[in-house]
Amino acid sequence: MIHWFCYALQIGAIQAVSREAYFTALESASGDIGSSIPPETGSKKHHRFPDLRGESNHKSVEALVKSTGKESLQWGLAAGVYSGLTYGLKEARGVHDWKNSALAGAITGAALALTSDDHSHEQVVQCAITGAAISTAANLLTGIF
Question: Are 76 and 84 contacting, i.e. CB atoms less than 8 angstroms apart?
Fold first, then answer.
């Protein structure tokens, strides 16, 4: 189970770095910070760490490390919680089925929503439903493919 946690940490780090690189490239190409924000993301979610484009390279690197660490921790949390819950439910119920996946996905989705800076009740519920749906679909499709 530890190796899955490490894989999730690596995925989170890569995702954070690539997202920041993408937004930085968009801003550099357009020359205007305000117009490069995609409409679906909004200005609030554009950069979680405004110091990433700080006055010095030291501040930028520090903000990138913080962002990468946070993303890695969130992915690691998701992997650990989901793996632990599915294993625990399998041991408790004696069967591994879509119900275990749905419950583990819902709890994992809610836990991930709670790690965001500005979480609301609606966001937690939405993430729980999404997590349950994705994990249930993955469980059901495992037998098909």
Answer: no
Q: How far apart are CA 46 and CA 124, in angstroms?
A: 21
- Cα(24)–Cα(28) distance, integer angstroms: 6
Buried b (16+ CB within 10 A) or exposed e, 10-41: ebbbeebeebbeebbeebeeeeeeeebbeeee
C-beta of residue 24 within 8 angstroms of C-beta of residue 50: no
How far apart, in whole angstroms, are the C-alpha atoms of residue 72 and residue 55?
26
Query: What is this structure's pTM?
Result: 0.59
- Helix, strand, coil percent content, the chain, rounded in steps of 5: 75, 0, 25
pLDDT in tens, 12-32: 666 667 767 777 777 777 765
